[in-house]
From TrEMBL, chain A:
Known partners and oligomeric status: The complex is composed of two ATP-binding proteins (LsrA), two transmembrane proteins (LsrC and LsrD) and a solute-binding protein (LsrB).
Highest taxon of the lineage: Bacteria
Chain's role: Part of the ABC transporter complex LsrABCD involved in autoinducer 2 (AI-2) import. Probably responsible for the translocation of the substrate across the membrane.
Bilayer topology term: Multi-pass membrane protein
GO molecular function, one term: transmembrane transporter activity
Subcellular location: Cell membrane
Native organism: Micromonospora inaquosa
Lineage of the organism: Bacteria, Bacillati, Actinomycetota, Actinomycetes, Micromonosporales
Ranges where the record places region Disordered: 1-23
Matching PANTHER family: ABC TRANSPORTER PERMEASE PROTEIN YPHD-RELATED-RELATED, AUTOINDUCER 2 IMPORT SYSTEM PERMEASE PROTEIN LSRC
InterPro entries: ABC_transp_permease
Protein name stated in the entry: Autoinducer 2 import system permease protein LsrC
GO cellular component, one term: plasma membrane
TrEMBL record, chain B:
Annotated compartments: Cell membrane
GO CC annotations on file: plasma membrane
InterPro entries linked to this entry: ABC_transp_permease
Protein's name according to its UniProt entry: Autoinducer 2 import system permease protein LsrD
Gene Ontology MF term list: transmembrane transporter activity
Mode of membrane association: Multi-pass membrane protein
Organism lineage: Bacteria, Bacillati, Actinomycetota, Actinomycetes, Micromonosporales
Signal peptide: none
One Pfam match: BPD_transp_2
UniProt entry keywords in alphabetical sequence: Cell inner membrane, Cell membrane, Membrane, Transmembrane, Transmembrane helix, Transport
Membrane spanning residue stretches: 29-51, 63-84, 104-125, 132-152, 188-213, 234-253, 265-282, 287-308, 314-334
Automatic annotation (TrEMBL), chain C:
InterPro entries, A to Z: Bact_Solute-Bind_Prot2 (IPR050555), Peripla_BP_I (IPR028082), RhaS (IPR013459), SBP_2_dom (IPR025997)
Cellular compartments annotated: Cell envelope
Gene Ontology biological process terms from the UniProt entry: rhamnose transmembrane transport
PANTHER family reported in the protein's UniProt record: ABC-TYPE SUGAR TRANSPORT SYSTEM PERIPLASMIC COMPONENT-LIKE PROTEIN, D-XYLOSE-BINDING PERIPLASMIC PROTEIN
Protein name (database record): Rhamnose ABC transporter substrate-binding protein
UniProt KW Hydrolase keyword: no
CDD domains per the UniProt record, alphabetical: PBP1_ABC_rhamnose
UniProt GO cellular component terms: outer membrane-bounded periplasmic space
NCBIfam families per record: RhaS
Short name of any one Pfam family annotated for the protein: Peripla_BP_4
Sequence intervals crossing the membrane: none
TrEMBL record, chain D:
Record's protein name: D-xylose ABC transporter ATP-binding protein
Alphabetized GO MF terms: ATP binding; ATP hydrolysis activity
Membrane topology of this protein: Peripheral membrane protein
Entries under SMART domains matching the protein: AAA (SM00382)
């Protein structure tokens, strides 16, 4: 990847220097904000149109359902953002979620008195362990994460199947205090969603305001340069996979709390939605740009589409097709935007030779 | 961009003259074909000796029939991966082609022959959509085909929705599973072999094949050498789609059932087989022979383990581990070799 | 790369040309002139000897829709009990995800292994037919349970209950719960599940009866036997149909998901839910008042009966012809009905009074 | 080691007996280097002499197999780039290493961003600091804009700002001027000098001797990974340095032989591409070498790419031997008899992972096919013929081209194109980054080719090369052709005058 656009008119005349007062927001950041804003608008439009057709869509119950429905996807999408930003991808999150969810159920089954915070910690730790397997393999093999996590997608799921061997864990097997976690509301907002919000805020803040967070962008933007500027790329990428695994673990525990019924198939195929949410949310698939907030919005948008289709009584078979079309539209739009921005930046490149 | 296309740092080729590591990876990959063929032979031998009912004609027939879709799709996939791209939408294209075949048969009144041709053309059109997004708009094929994976699968449910079409004429459905008279080799192996030979020759012994390797390694340099990178990639996606159309027909007839979920998840197996066959996910490296051996190895292992009553869940783990091993092992071995080499280098200096 | 383009053009053109020629020349195979003459019906060859003893050492394999489905784990275990009783060899194999194509490869494997009886629940009524016929030709007896294939592909279908029985039962349950009038909806499994669709069709017929004239079926939704999807669909139903009084979900996954949604929503107790579910999954919702009553046959008995039917076939007690009778251990005597169907019996209705007596 | 030049204070950085091998290849063999504070020190050597490896050792990217580093008399161990940076060693690589998605300010301060409470990054302070740095350098770059889209010169400036920002005591510059124009080089040198005055040491690597002698106090010469000499520039002549580098005498530049001018072979008419170049017309005759001169970014390479069809153009036409060549199609351009040796060998000229023979025959892959089949034997024969003619030194033809030295790589590129027997050869920076010995070979070759009737369009940033080789010089400025100079009128002044757009009209 070259930084220079072919044939940029570097010396194009008449470039006013940037007005220092107006520049405080920063061009780079403003570009991101545009993306998040457009997602919000899309979300608003979708909710608006659906509500017009069916006013119950805006009822308290419905909004609660919506928030509840998107919480798990939001958490996964945020974890995926961390990974994609470094120009990697984690396809095994669905399998990790399934494995952790089943492990949580098994824990309650074998030790009925376990307080739920313990289960939470155990679940997150198991997820982190799976993430460490991913990260370790990637570090050892120095091959694309895509391939490794495709492999662990099978492997973790296989372990899950093997372990469950057709058993199912039911709501009755888990303590009510744990299950309440999945359904309880605080001031009408589901606890699950609050957890997701905390995760989004924490990761978003970390990515934006901490040195190590910025280094993740650097790695994704130009891995070779990152190595030369002293960033410990291997360590960071490993950490990112552990984090993604831990968040998938968290999502797995919450999944158990919310759905109550657990078998080995929990979360199958979820990875596609997660990647879709991140990409729709403006996280560039080639790393280096995107935010946790955007990815979370992407996840909310995808969930809302699912619910709207059900409410609008559109053939549910369309849902997957819509998700696919949305991914294509999102990356297409990104491309268009990038080209326009590049064209605009070309004009700014000069500094009066 | 070839290097950027599939994530992760490009292979850590040292720029130093003689780049020891690069050379040893190359040396190893050069023989990866041989490794995989040897593994295949060993697997077949061991399975024949230890697994009851493995070395029978009937089993060979089942094995080959089960492998047909995988083998067919692996052919264009090999070419695509060698150019540094990937097509994850193949299984969804198979599904959509299958349901469209069912829908046409159900409601159009066209002859089945014509429907088959239309389905292949349709597959080509689906591939062309992928190609357009990837080459026309310059988008990463990974993202595009994840999108079309969902889109095409969704559409295939839209096409047939509730139903499965199953009343295909019996002589057609029987024809695809028939054996070559006097053998236990399915007739369908013949077109597969023909296609494999065609793909092999194109890849290894034509100007176009050279261009594929060139653009997989460095598409900018390929462009400067007069290779139409975009156009070639576009047509590869089209070919991939058309082959998926063929597989859609085969699938529908073999299982006498056109339904939306046909071939779900097949893309992962195809990618596994291609990587197992020694094709580099970064593009620019790999051979068709290795891929064919990889497909067979995957099939033989699954079949033998199934016959040996190994749990299906263990099979899932095996598939995943094979994929990981096929990418981790070459690197690990190269590392060890490089280390040994360095030690050998150092010793005379010390003494 | 103009050669590429040229090559492709030639290819496409010749393909199209070939197609035209083919279809013009002899009309080709169209739907109208093709005769669907697959199989020769139910082969009730030979004669049944009701007094024959069940052979010892029969190799019996269970092939469920998918290994990781708890419902099938229970029914296969029932089958295992039966096989142990008559001293056969039991085996359970299956794909990890429900798909017809992988079932085919397992059927092939089983016939390779020389199984005496293959007992399967079909993911697709047609797709596994070819393989089953081959297995039959290789000497295996074929029994289907839970989900049937085309009748000519198996000897016996062990049906949990008649479709009419289910439809009657479900409509009656919901009618009782909503007080005989109001809007109802059905939350089904996948849209192409054979048994589901048969039941739904019969429920619609059932609803035309005068005693149900005030009940209106507004829609059928599909939760794909996926927990989350079923959950979302329930949510969608309640939003789309504000006057909805009741939901029938004749699938274990669907009814559990719907119950979970209702129990956590404002509709709890107001919108009635019934369907087919397992007591273990539903216990909590029956106790917390979300669900009044639901029904199910015993999946373990279903597997048990299927195993005995298979053994009876393999031992020559029955041939699968209508009227054959056989003994199924603790369950007593069964008669083969039309098209080789054996029926387990009416479903059990579970409510808060009896649910604690059942553990499955 | 000889003179202990400027001042007699203790040396700032000392490398002693540094050895580094990659596999079987020894890249550095017992190299010595001493840097004093306030000194600009040149490091020269042919390609493959080990300069880049030495840079990477200093940068902490490679750990030496043996030998020692001493900073301020203290032994220095570099576990990675971060350690080097902490020790005050800044490296500006040949190719800028920026993060395109991040803002310019972040690029400068990556890993060292100013912090406020809770260890958060203080973005405002960071932007302010960046702006202050640019002021010090006398340039205007918006610190909040993304690095993507910056010109090469601006990227270098960002790199320099980065180096100054952490008060580097040792600044290593690996061929920083390769992509810069004269004005930009001057500014860079001004910065380097001011850093030296501030007490830092600058290690400067370049192939351009005038720059070396202009900037540096001392020169260290490497050959084949070994230290050859370190001397004061004042005591040296260019010839002595070159002799040290190659170990023998070479005629520094090979002037073009006169050739008989034939018909016009390349005719470019009113070529325009919006925002890149405008209304470019020129022609080249058989036997003629025409140089396209100008500053970097003037649009020279872009014109070449458009003529060859790699890039599209909006208006105008290109004719080869009187027949129009379709736009935007390199394949057709090749068929018409054109060949382009691009400026970036690694990215555009060669496929590094492929073998020498595949690279050498890639452009001829169709011509070598029989009945559509391309067999390895045909390629090998062809490759053998051309590599022999150009005296490519390779262990074997099947070896990856990445294992060759820069000069030999360039010869492979030339072999690839000469094998197509072109009538028009466009060659962009024919000798960039190749050593002195090979340089003159390339010049001789170009001269011979012109003698055989080829039309050659040469783009070069090295004025001696332009003046020595060209029959005519075309000068571009800001996307326009501003001046055409016949050989007799061309000299450094007239070309630079036109290239900087000072009062010149064609």
């Amino acid at each position: 990847m070259s930084l220079t656009d072919a044939g940029a008119p570097e010396r194009a005349a008449g470039n006013a220097p940037p007005d220092p007062d107006r520049q405080r927001r920063g061009l780079t950041e403003r570009l991101l904000a545009v993306r998040e804003l457009s997602l919000l608008i899309a979300l608003g439009l979708l909710v608006g149109v659906t509500a017009l057709r069916n006013d119950r869509f805006l009822s308290g119950q419905s909004i609660k359902d919506l928030l509840l429905g998107c919480a798990i996807l939001v958490i996964l999408a945020v974890g995926q953002t961390l990974v994609i930003v470094t120009r990697n991808v984690d396809l095994s999150v669905g399998s990790i979620l399934g494995l952790v969810a089943f492990a949580t159920g098994s824990l309650f089954l074998s030790a009925p008195g376990t307080p739920w915070p313990v289960a939470l910690v155990v679940g997150v730790a198991l997820g982190a362990l799976c993430g460490a397997v991913n990260g370790g393999l990637i570090a050892v093999a120095r091959v694309p994460a895509l391939v490794i996590t495709l492999g662990t997608l099978y492997a973790f799921r296989g372990v899950d199947y093997y372990w469950a061997s057709g058993r199912q864990i039911n709501a009755a097997d888990m303590p009510p205090s744990f299950l309440r976690l999945g359904n309880q509301t605080v001031l009408g907002v589901p606890v699950l969603f609050l957890v997701a919000l905390v995760v989004v805020a924490a990761v978003g803040f970390y990515l934006r305001s901490y040195r190590s967070g910025r280094e993740l962008y650097a790695i994704g933007s130009e891995p070779a340069a990152a190595r030369l500027s002293g960033i410990r790329v291997g360590r960071r990428v490993f950490a990112v996979f552990v984090a993604s695994g831990a968040l998938a673990g968290l999502a797995g525990v919450l999944y158990a709390a919310r759905f109550g019924t657990l078998d080995a198939a929990a979360g199958t195929g979820l990875e596609l939605q997660v990647v879709a949410a991140a990409v729709v949310g403006g996280v560039a698939i080639f790393g280096g740009s995107g935010s946790a907030y955007g990815a979370a919005l992407g996840a909310v948008l995808l969930t809302t589409i699912g619910s709207s289709l059900a409410v609008l009584r559109i053939d549910p078979f369309w849902q997957q097709a819509v998700v696919g079309a949305l991914i294509l539209a999102a990356i297409g739009l990104d491309r268009l935007l990038a080209l326009r921005v590049a064209a605009r930046l070309r004009g700014r490149s000069a500094h009066g030779a | 961009m070839a290097h950027d296309s599939l994530y992760a740092a490009p292979p850590t080729a040292e720029a130093e003259p003689g780049g020891g590591r690069l050379a040893s990876v190359r040396g190893l990959l050069g023989s990866w074909d041989a490794v995989i063929v040897a593994a295949l032979v060993v697997a077949v031998l061991v399975a024949s000796l230890t697994v009851e009912n493995f070395a029978t004609g009937r089993n060979a027939q089942f094995l080959l029939l089960d492998l047909m879709p995988l083998a067919l799709i692996a052919l264009p996939m090999t070419l695509i991966v060698i150019t540094g791209e990937i097509d994850l939408s193949v299984a969804s294209m198979v599904g959509l082609c299958s349901t469209l075949m069912g829908q046409l048969w159900l409601s159009s009144g066209l002859s089945l022959e014509l429907i088959c041709v239309l389905v292949v053309l349709l597959g080509a059109v689906l591939g062309a959509v992928n190609g357009l997004f990837v080459t026309g708009f310059g988008l990463p094929s990974l993202a595009v085909t994840i999108g079309t994976l969902a889109l095409y699968r969704g559409l295939s449910f839209v096409v047939l929705g509730d139903q499965a079409v199953a009343d295909f004429p019996a002589d057609w459905t029987a024809a695809v599973v028939r054996n070559i008279p006097g053998t236990s080799v399915p007739v369908m192996v013949v077109p597969l072999l023909v296609l494999a030979v065609i793909f092999g020759v194109v890849l290894h012994a034509t100007a176009a094949g050279r261009a594929l390797y060139a653009m997989g390694n460095n598409d900018q340099a390929a462009t400067f050498t007069g290779v139409s990178v975009a156009r070639t990639k576009f047509w590869l996606f089209v070919v991939s789609g058309a082959v998926c159309g063929l597989v859609g027909i085969f699938w529908t007839l073999r299982y006498a059932s056109a339904r939306g979920d046909n071939a779900t998840g097949l893309e992962l197996t195809v990618v596994t087989a291609v990587l197992l066959g020694g094709v580099s996910i970064f593009g620019g490296r790999g051979a068709l022979l290795g891929v064919v051996a990889g497909v067979l190895l995957l099939g033989v292992l699954r079949n033998a383990l199934q016959l040996a009553d190994v749990d299906a869940n263990a099979l899932t783990i095996v598939t995943g581990s094979l994929l990981i091993a096929s990418v981790v092992l070459p690197n690990a071995v190269a590392d060890i070799r490089a280390r040994l080499h360095r030690r050998r280098q150092r010793q005379p200096v010390a003494s | 790369m103009s050669a590429y383009r040229r090559g492709l053009r030639v290819g496409v053109t010749s393909l199209a040309l070939a197609a035209l020629l083919l279809s013009a020349a002899c009309g080709g195979t169209t739907r109208d002139n093709s005769t669907d003459d697959a199989g020769a019906g139910n082969q009730a060859s030979g004669t049944a000897n009701p007094d024959a003893a069940i052979k010892a050492g029969l190799k019996i394999a269970f092939l469920p829709k998918a290994l990781n489905n708890p419902y099938f784990t229970v029914s296969d275990n029932g089958g295992k009990d039966a096989v142990t009783e008559f001293k056969g060899e039991f085996k359970e194999v299956g794909p990890s995800e429900a798909s017809a194509s992988s079932q085919v490869s397992y059927i092939n494997t089983l016939s390779q292994q020389g199984m005496d009886v293959i007992i399967t629940s079909a993911n697709d009524p047609n797709a596994i037919c070819g393989a089953l016929n081959q297995a039959k030709a290789a000497g295996a007896k074929i029994v289907t349970f839970d989900s049937d294939t085309k009748p000519e592909c198996r000897q016996i279908f062990v049906n949990q209950v008649t479709a009419e029985g289910i439809a009657e039962n479900q409509v009656k349950l919901i009618s009782q719960q909503i007080g005989g009038e109001g809007e109802i909806a059905i939350l089904s499994a996948t849209a192409n599940a054979t048994n589901q669709n048969a039941w739904i069709a019969l429920m619609k017929t059932e609803l035309t009866k005068p005693e149900y004239s005030k009940i209106k079926l507004v829609t059928v939704a599909y939760g794909n036997d996926d927990d989350q999807k079923s959950f979302q669909e329930t949510q969608g139903l309640l939003q789309s149909y504000p006057n909805l009084k009741g939901i029938i979900s004749p699938t274990t996954v669907g009814v559990a998901a719907a119950a979970r949604y209702l129990s956590g929503s404002q509709y709890k107790g107001k919108v009635k839910l019934t369907g087919l579910g397992t007591p273990n999954q539903m216990r909590q919702y029956v106790k917390d008042g979300t669900v009044d009553a639901f029904a199910l046959w015993s999946p373990a008995d279903l597997g048990y009966l299927a195993a005995y039917a298979g053994a009876a076939l393999a031992s020559g007690q029955i041939t699968g012809a209508e009227g054959d009778t056989f003994k199924a251990g603790k369950l007593g005597e069964f008669t083969v009905g039309k098209d080789g169907v054996v029926i387990l019996g009416p479903p059990t209705v579970f409510d808060k009074n009896n649910i604690d007596q059942f553990q499955f | 080691m000889t003179a202990d030049a400027p001042g007699t204070q203790a040396p700032l950085l000392v490398l002693d007996g540094v050895t580094k091998s990659f596999g079987a290849v020894a890249a550095l063999r017992g190299v010595h280097l001493t840097l004093h504070s306030g000194e600009a020190h040149a490091l020269v050597g042919e390609n493959g002499a080990g300069k880049s490896t030495l840079v990477k050792v200093l940068a902490g990217a490679h750990a030496p197999d043996s030998g020692s580093l001493t900073l301020d008399g203290q032994p220095l161990r570099l576990g990675g780039p971060a350690d080097a940076r902490a020790a005050g060693i800044a490296v500006i690589y040949q190719e800028p290493t920026l993060f395109p998605d991040l803002s310019v300010a972040e690029n400068i301060f990556m890993g060292r961003q100013p912090l406020r409470g809770l260890r958060r990054i203080d973005t405002a302070a960071m932007n302010r600091d960046a702006e202050r740095l640019f002021q010090r350098l006398g340039v205007r770059i918006d610190p909040t804009r993304p690095a993507r889209g910056l010109s090469i010169a601006d990227q270098q400036l960002v790199e320099i700002a980065k180096a100054i920002s952490f008060d580097a005591r040792v600044l290593v510059m690996d061929e920083p001027t390769a992509a810069l124009s004269g004005v930009e080089v001057e500014r860079l040198f001004a910065v380097a000098r001011s850093l030296c005055e501030g007490g830092a040491a600058v290690l400067f690597i370049s192939h351009r001797f005038n720059e070396v002698f202009d900037l540096c106090h001392r020169v260290t010469v490497l050959r084949d990974g070994a230290w050859v000499s370190s001397d004061d520039t004042a005591d040296l002549t260019v010839d002595e340095v070159v002799r040290g580098m190659v170990g023998r005498d070479v005629s520094s530049l090979y002037p073009k032989q006169d050739a008989e001018l034939r018909d016009t072979l390349l005719d470019v008419r009113r070529l325009s591409r919006a925002g890149v170049f405008t209304d470019v017309s020129f022609s080249v005759r058989g036997g003629e070498i025409v140089a396209l001169a100008g500053l970097v970014g003037a649009g020279r390479s872009e014109v070449a790419r458009a003529v060859f069809g790699v890039d599209r153009y909006d208006a105008g036409e290109v004719l080869v031997a009187g027949r129009a060549v379709p736009a935007g199609n390199p394949g057709r351009a090749i068929a018409a008899g054109m060949a382009l040796v691009p400026e970036d060998r690694r990215q555009q000229g060669l496929i590094m992972e492929l073998s020498v023979e595949r690279n050498a025959t890639l452009a001829r892959r169709r011509a070598l096919s029989r009945l559509g089949l391309l067999l390895g034997a045909a390629e090998r024969a062809e490759a053998r013929q051309w590599t022999r003619r150009l005296q490519v030194k390779a262990s074997r033809l099947g070896a990856p081209v990445a294992t060759l030295s820069g000069g030999n790589q360039q010869k492979v590129v030339l072999a690839k194109w000469l094998a197509t027997e072109p009538r028009v050869l466009i060659i962009d920076e024919p000798t960039r980054g190749i050593d002195v010995g090979t340089k003159s070979e390339v010049h001789r070759l170009l001269s011979e080719l012109a003698g055989q009737g080829l039309a050659i369009l040469m783009i070069s940033s090295e004025l001696p090369e332009v003046l020595g080789m060209a029959d005519r010089v075309l000068v571009m400025h800001e996307g326009r052709l501003v001046r055409e100079l016949p050989r007799a009128e061309a000299d450094e002044t007239s070309i630079m005058f036109a290239a900087t757009g000072q009062g010149a009209t064609a």
